[in-house]
Amino acid sequence: MGLKYVGPKVNISKYGMDFDNNKEDKFVYLNIALQLLKALDHKYIADKVYTFDTDSTYLDQKEVERMARHYCEDIDSVSSEAEEAVQHYLGYEIKRAKKSRSLSDDEKHAFVNNLNMMRSYMVQRAINKTVYYAIINRLVDVLKKGNIDYVIAPMFQKFAHVFHSIQGVLQNQKEPIYSNMEIYEEDGRLLTKLDIHKR
Questions:
Q1: Whole-prediction pTM
Q2: Residues 6+ positions from 126 with CB-CB distance below 8 Å
Q3: What does the pLDDT look like over 157-183, one tens digit per residue?
Q4: Does 180 lie in the same domain as 139?
Q5: Which of 27, 81, 92, 159 has its CA at a distance of 20 to 30 angstroms from the CA of residue 58?
Q6: Region for 169 from its dihedrals, namely left if φ exceeds 0, alpha if ψ lies in -120 to 50, beta otherwise
Q7: Between vectors from CA 85 to CA 17 and to CA 16, what angle results, nearest 5°?
Q8: Residue 75 and residue 162 in one domain
Q9: Residue 150: strand pairing partners
Q10: Same-domain status, 87 and 157
């Protein structure tokens, strides 16, 4: 199915669909995660500070997919698993709707149609999310392998979201790695810093 933006999380009912704008499609964060991974994935010399131009061109959809395939070699199997999970979930929801005693026949029909109508939307969101977290896990591996102490980026929402995702993965390691994120101003610019505590 590939990678492409579809939109925020959808809530489906017998009445129709509504979208939760607080639950954005992970595709919007893939650009930042991939550029961050590209910037960090190299050999390091001890005590050297590395910089990367964050003003680089925004990656188009084809470049996002190309880079994702480069860093996530099992992208097709990961995507298939995500699709299978959504298909299973929708199958369960459709059976449940059809057997419901609280819904009229018209409501059952509407609910099932709504679920089917949003099937490819939900599959795409699941694929985007799964690939995003595969890239975040790769970023965590790079941070650990490079023994990176901190990363500083402009205080844009997307960088903060990616840093927050990295923190979650670090925290959930077999041996948790603690980190903290701070926002500060320097030379009139707002920056965010992800500090990774010594292992």
A1: 0.90
A2: 82, 83, 85, 86
A3: 789 999 999 999 999 988 889 999 999
A4: no
A5: 81
A6: alpha
A7: 10
A8: no
A9: 195
A10: no
Which residues, 6+ apart, have CB-to-CB distance to 19 below 8 Å?
7, 8, 9, 10, 11
Q: Can you list the positions of beta strands (E) in the chain?
A: 9-13, 16-20, 150-154, 179-186, 189-196
Identify the pLDDT of residue 60: 86
Q: Would you state the pLDDT for residue 97?
A: 95
For residue 78 the two structure tokens come to 């990961």
User: Is the confidence at residue 34, as pLDDT, over 80?
Assistant: yes
Same domain, 36 and 5: yes
**In a shared domain, residues 60 and 83:** yes
Give per-residue pLDDT as tens, 102-120: 999 999 999 999 999 999 9
Domains in the chain: how many in total?
Answer: 2
* 157 lies in the same domain as 198: yes
Residue pair 20/8 in contact (Cβ under 8 Å)? The answer is: yes
